[in-house]
Structure prediction request, 632 residues.
Amino acid sequence: MKILGISCFYHDSAACLLEDGRVVAMAQEERFSRRKHDPDFPRRAIDYCLREGHVSAPELDAVGFYDKPFVKFERILQTTIAAWPKGLFSFLRAMPVWIKEKIWMSHLIRKELGFAGALYYGEHHLSHAASAFYASGFEDAAVLTADGVGEWATTSLAQGTGKGLRILAEIHFPHSLGLFYSAFTYFLGFKVNSGEYKVMGLAPYGEPRFKDLILRELIDLREDGSFKLNLSYFPFTYGGVMTGRKFEKLFGLPRRRPESELGQIHFDLAASVQAVIEQAMLGLARRAFDVTRSDRLCLAGGVALNCVANGKILREGPFRDVFIQPAAGDAGGAYGVAAFIAHALFGKARTGRWDHAFYGPSHEREDIRRVLEVSDAVYDEYNDERLVDETARRLADGKVVGWMRGRMEVGPRALGHRSILADPRDAGMKDRVNMKIKFRESFRPFAPVTVRERCGEFFDLDRESPFMMLVASVRGAEPIIPSVTHVDGTARVQTVAKEIDPVYHRLVERFGRLSGVPVLINTSFNVRGEPMVCTPEDAWRCFMRTRMDSLVIGNFLLDKDKQNRKEETPEAWLSRVPAD
Amino acid sequence: MSRLEVLKEFWNFLKERKKWWLAPIVIVLLLLGALIAVTETSALAPFIYTLF
Prediction:
């Protein structure tokens, strides 16, 4: 049974193809369109999924869409009427795209795909919950989802048992942890729905001195995990902006202008909102345990990308095991709705835990070689063993290497198939990669990858973290891996297992043999404002336009200093890439 | 043909959620939409979460 799941029109549109409940292919549209967080109908991602599955659209057994457009439309109308006349402007601006596209979803899907079969619509939070539960492999689990907003729900608690999944409780718009965190993201001068992880990265530089004020004035957080926003501070219900004058007055400063200097008060605000979100998520997790009595937890929704809060739930919460969907944002909804159709509606057997997230496109040797030839690249080709040796040697010499091999990752984290790798022992490496290669803010930390079997030597983490969704303390008073140790002594760890990703595992291991530390910086293969690279062409372009030293594509290795061709300067290129 | 399917889905949605009061608003919007649809579409700028 072949099912296509689609998510789109808000952020990170994606497609996913399942065959008898197993993922055949999954990808985000942004990787093909090269437009970060692309919300458009995922035509290219769908094409890729169908190609990978050797299936044409009319042959599909079902197509699922990850939310219910009419219910969402109902929420918009009701919210506009409730806020009348304040929300009129936002309403009028939103209507054309609704009337032209969003409300005609069935028509659009049938027209775009040429598909006449069964169409299903899953509720937004049910799709999120399904994306985590069916990927977790747990037989029984509590499932917690939290994001900005779906149709009405912003937070949901569900229970999954076997093939079934049932929503038990919801918190509705406008009371939303996602919107609450986004309001601070906006106030701190970052882009909403993109800069949230910057707020998380800023938090350890500050003190949570505004936490009590936030809890007193902005959000009523209760013992049972429920919460209520004080809407007089949040004008987002009628559009326009996320925070207003009253918010500025409360903290005694205006909203920070994007790209302007960050001060201690901004760090303290970030620390405060982070402390509140952790308390809220922990409260919700405890509530989930009380209601379901299950000792396993699944997390999804944009708020589940807050890996600091996830680490806290793991350490302080009541659960024995926690699974976080690697594509926890809306992209994961494409898998979620398809999986719900397969398992809950059609009774297909569960397919076990996701042990990787490599469901995107890969490229054949000949395709890569052709791109390199056309690009006039100077390259060497090695077998796996020699490739690992050559790359590890370069890394140990302080070189920064772009590493693109195998099928592309889904979700926002690079997991070793579209990564930039570097030596974490060098304290200056963080600034070098931030400022010269990724062109992003200096405060942003890098994440480490280590081999699973030696994780405990370097990090206070007692389990694997293949999707880089957990934050743990770095061991040792004097960190030996300063470039991946955040200011509070923590790191967002990825563990790699030999049986899942043998070449990547061998690379980290080999680097460890040369340096004594089997840990590498692993950051996504892109520059600020751009999606992760997808094709060999993307990788070549990114390599030549940055100050990266070496590039691996498949089994080909390229060194910058051997290249004849010069691309445009990074600065010229960056001026055309929108800020993230 | 599939546009008719959408209208049928909308009818079912009204019935299921008993939101009959939405019907006149949506009908007027759809009529207006025929005019508006020719203009450029735009979601709210990135300074607000995509609530709409």
